[in-house]
Amino acid sequence: MEKLSVSQIISKINNEESFSAVAEDYSFTLKIDQYVPYVCAAVHDGHQFRKELWNKCLHTEYERWYEEDPKTKKMVENHPIILAGRDSRFEYDLNRDPENAIYEDAWGKKLWKEPLTNSEKEKSLNKHHNFYKVVDALIAKLEQKFGVVVVYDMHSYNWQRWEREVPVFNIGISNVDQKRFDETIKIWRKSLEEIKLPNNIKTSAKINDVFKGNGYFLKHITHKFDNTLVLATEVSKIYCNELEEIIFPEVVDTIQKELSVRLKDHALEFYNKHKNN
Predict the structure, then answer these.
(1) Confidence bin at 108 (pLDDT 50/70/90)
(2) Calpha distance 169→174 (Å, rounded)
(3) 264: nearest Cα among 84, 134, 31, 77
(4) Considering the domain 2-274 in this protein, what is its CATH number?
């Protein structure tokens, strides 16, 4: 893996080079083994939290981990194009627009002991801005090369806070073209539901059940690119003990192995169906 500036990363994308890089400020990673018409993204995978903010933050390390999406990058790491955040959403949230990316409170609890300075905010928002410069360059290149693109926007969520039964997998589609991509969405849901998990975990997959697909990452790409479908795909945290911060590697590995085949097959089906439309 190389450490590259944003301009160097974009240059490599424009030249269709294969590479594996971390941004020079370590805020995100991008791996491109091969240029293909699909991308896997894990914008909330990161846990880094800038040291100058530690003493200002009222949330504990565990409280931050609880609301992040650990191992979502791991679940899709076998695919050719992987884009992942490395910073915690508690510093700035890549799945919110710039005006709301820095929290004042988080999940009902005030976040900062004292307000952040303009300089502190600017450092975080600059990382947010640079991430989306790379997103735009990547999707533009893929649309130019292939005509259509599908992005698997991977997230996880805490199922134990719900007072009803919730699905293992949730696909949020409120902000995508449901008429155009209806069949593709239904095939993805069905494929996720067929995944067999260890530890007697019963798999279920629903559409717009717990989350509707209202994240900024999905909206940004959807509004800017006419021929890219973003599938906001949530995995409930059945792969860890969310109350004790323990990851179950056998469950993570199973999801990764299943997605290594199912996601690739689904992306190929999507491309073959929509490439000439």
Answers:
(1) confident
(2) 16
(3) 77
(4) 3.40.630.40
